[in-house]
């Protein structure tokens, strides 16, 4: 967990997801909620598993995409002893939590 998130309560929360085409509501909890909040906080910079460590970023992104959350994957080259590419995930829709304290049943 990054320093910007002090809470360890990742219970279910309702988010409104807005794209140019539609608005929907999803219920997100656990690591998927953590990943969504990391994506929201990172803005247009996006997240990488290096900057925002978590064991299964690709899995969290996959699960969020299944809920119609629009996340772009940018493949970046990196140097070092294990040079190659890494994924940067960028939220490309608006995700807003419902009223503070409103949780899913």
Automatic annotation (TrEMBL):
Q: What is this protein called?
A: Winged helix domain-containing protein
Q: Where is the Winged helix domain?
A: 26-99
Q: Which InterPro entries match?
A: wHTH_alphaproteobact
């Amino acid at each position: 967990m990054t320093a910007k998130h002090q809470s360890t309560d990742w219970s279910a929360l309702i988010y409104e997801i807005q794209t140019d085409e539609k608005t929907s509501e999803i219920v997100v909890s656990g690591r998927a909620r953590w990943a969504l909040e990391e994506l929201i906080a990172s803005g247009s910079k996006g997240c990488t598993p290096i900057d925002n460590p978590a064991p299964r970023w690709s899995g969290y992104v996959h699960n969020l995409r299944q809920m119609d959350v629009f996340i772009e994957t940018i493949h970046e080259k990196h140097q070092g002893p294990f040079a190659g590419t890494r994924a940067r995930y960028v939220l490309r829709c608006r995700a807003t939590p419902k009223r503070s304290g409103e949780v899913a049943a």
